[in-house]
Design a protein that fits this description.
single chain; 105 residues; alpha+beta; Glutaredoxin; four-stranded mixed β-sheet
Length: 105
C-alpha cells in the first residue's frame, strides 16, 4: 500500500497564514497520536510529508490559505489537528490497526 502523501504549501500567502506552523506537522502528529500508540518509525513508513513552493490554489473560490494536499485532495485553512484527524484512519489502516470509531472519516 502506498504511503499517504501530504504536501504543505509554503508559498508566501500560505506561509504567513499558518503554513509555517504546518511544517512542524511530524512532531505534532507524534504528540496528537500518542494515545493511539503510533511511533515515529511507523509515521515514517506510512506518511510522506513535504513542503511545496506553491500549490497554486490561492484563487480557488471559497477557500483560504494555508493549503495542504493530502493524496491530491485539497484542504484549505488547514491546521495540524485537521490534518491529523483526516489522515489518522488511513494511517491506522496502513499499520493494520482498526480505526477508532469516534475519529473515522
Amino acid at each position: 500500500m502506498e504511503p499517504i502523501s501530504i504536501e504543505i504549501c509554503t508559498g508566501t500567502a500560505c506561509f504567513v497564514m499558518g503554513g509555517a506552523d504546518l511544517l512542524l506537522l511530524n512532531d505534532e502528529l507524534l504528540r496528537i497520536w500518542a494515545p493511539h500508540d503510533i511511533s515515529q518509525k511507523e509515521i515514517d513508513k506510512v506518511l510522506v510529508i513535504k513542503g511545496k513552493t506553491c500549490t497554486g490554489h490561492c484563487r480557488v473560490p471559497g477557500m483560504r490559505p494555508p493549503f495542504v494536499l493530502i493524496d491530491d485532495v485539497l484542504i484549505g485553512e488547514a491546521t495540524i489537528s485537521m490534518i491529523a484527524e483526516v489522515v489518522l484512519p488511513g494511517v491506522q489502516k496502513r499499520l493494520g490497526r482498526t480505526p477508532d470509531k469516534e475519529r473515522s472519516c
